[in-house]
Amino acid sequence: MLHSKLKRFLNQKNGFFLITGPPGTGKTHLLIEVLIYLLNKKKIDPSRILVFCFNRRWAKILREKAAESAGRSIFEIPITSFFSFCADFVEKTFYLKGLYDNLGPVLFDFNNKFQILNATQQWKLLKEVIDGLEKKNYPLTLKYIRGNSFVSNSFAQEVFDFILRAQESLLAPADLSSKFTPYNNPVFSEIVGIYANYNRVLLSRNLYNYGRLLVDTVNILKGDSSIRNSVKQFYDFIIIDELQELNNAQFQIAGLLSDSNLIFFGNDDESIDAFRGSAINNFGRVVEKIYQDQDPEKNVLFLKTNHRSNYFLNKVTGNFIDLNENRISKSSSVKKTTEKKNAIASIYDSVFIKEFKTTIDEVNFIVEQIKKKIIVKKVKPEDICILVKGLGYKTRLIENF
User: Fold this and answer.
1) Which phi-psi region, left, alpha or beta, contains residue 118 (left: φ > 0; alpha: ψ -120 to 50)?
2) Residue 237 contacts residue 49 (beta carbons within 8 Å)
3) What is the CATH number of the domain that holds 8?
4) What is d(CA 190, CA 144) in angstroms, rounded to the nearest whole number?
């Protein structure tokens, strides 16, 4: 059963709607319920609903779950990633004009083709660009590239990431060249120069990396009102999953596609991908826009029941995240009867932190704790989870005990 707030929005399509709550409160479940309601209750054509996920893997999983729940084929469920959407969108318009100069209006060539580079191809192209630089203008780059393989590859990776982050932030080389000069930051000045050369090669050969797909999509939607209005009229609802993971380009694309029928799912507490370009201030922008309304609470739905975690874990994590003064305040409770709470208390201990001098000491302690849980407290082995920093020797040691 959908909340009355959400039902009202789905019937009126007025502005932005935000659904938020701590982990485990059912945001994904509710997203699927919204799709079922739109498809089966309101009888909306699936092609007029667009759902954005933060990557292709999650889009596939969510599409399968939604298709099963809604009784549809996976081909009917309009769930995609920004990468896939932008690739299709740019391909349909064949946007070929240079984006970073002021040479004139946007031009389209429907007789030409372009190529989307995979990660390996992007890496090779970057190496080619670096190898073709005028060496006297890039002394620091030359120094790093001529170092040992670790230094050379690490520098190339930094440049690769810098270019992608700049594109995701919609920052062209010209925007950065004034900030990073050879005098105040020579290393970044050279990297910006590499970025400019890399861009020129992409444009001249009509090649696309993920960043250029985002940039071109934004520029097409901004630069051609007929295309923008056509796309805006095509969708009745646009749903954004994991709002906190959006980068600036993705957020702009969402805003250009619609200004009155956007539904956001997310939790600012779960924003952990800034190193991959996500911008937490986008979450704040959505909240700010909603709260400009005279009755802002009508377009915000807080989910407050944790269906995933036990009482102690929910309590500890809630207290911990409350230390962040810049978050949007939210909390959740575990729906348990008194009897179940007592049963939980007999199994689960409080959370504690323990240091060890050696890995063997740590493994011995973990193994002993597991034995106590299984033998004394009758906990099933499949109900025990061990989290480690990557698979490796600790995992093997624990398995061997």
Assistant:
1) beta
2) yes
3) 3.40.50.300
4) 12
- What CA–CA distance (Å, rounded) separates 377 from 384? 12
The residues that bridge with 84 in the sheet, in sequence order, are none
Q: Which of 205, 236, 252 is the last residue of a domain?
A: 205
Q: Which amino acid is at 233?
A: Q
Looking at the domain assignment, is residue 386 inside a domain? yes
Q: What is the distance between the alpha carbons of residues 42 and 44, in angstroms, rounded to a whole number?
A: 6
pTM over 0.85: no
Tally of structural domains, the chain = 3
> What whole-number distance in Å separates Cα of residue 23 and Cα of residue 303?
10
Sign (positive or negative) of CA dihedral 387, 353, 366, 341: negative
Q: What are the CA-CA distances from residue 63 to residues 18, 72, 79, 264, 273 (Å)? A: 21, 10, 6, 17, 23
Domain extent for 71? 4-87+224-303
User: Does position 85 have pLDDT exceeding 90, yes or no?
Assistant: yes
Locate tokens 């893997």: which residue?
57
d(CA 377, CA 395): 24
Which segment of 149-158, 169-178, 207-216, 361-370 scores lowest on mean pLDDT? 361-370
Which among 276, 228, 280, 277 is positioned nearest to 254, based on CA atoms?
228
Residue 180, domain CATH: 1.10.10
Beta bridge partners of 263: 17, 239
Q: How many residues does the chain have?
A: 401
- The pLDDT tens digits for 199-250 are 999 999 989 999 999 999 999 999 888 889 888 888 999 999 999 999 999 9
Residue 392 amino acid letter? G
What is the predicted pLDDT for the residue at 325? 84
Smallest CA-to-CA distance from 264 within 13, 4, 11, 17 is with 17
Comparing CA positions, the residue from 216, 318, 304, 224 lying closest to residue 269 is: 318
Find the angle CA(383)-CA(388)-CA(392) to the nearest 5 degrees. 115
Q: Is residue 265 part of a domain?
A: yes
CA 257 remoteness from chain centre: 18
Which among 10, 27, 20, 77 has a CA at the least distance from the CA of 48? 77
Distance CA 239, CA 262 (A): 6
d(CA 49, CA 43) in angstroms, rounded, equals 11
Are 136 and 188 found together in one domain? Answer: yes
Q: What is the dihedral of CA 360, 366, 368, 372, to 10 degrees?
A: 180
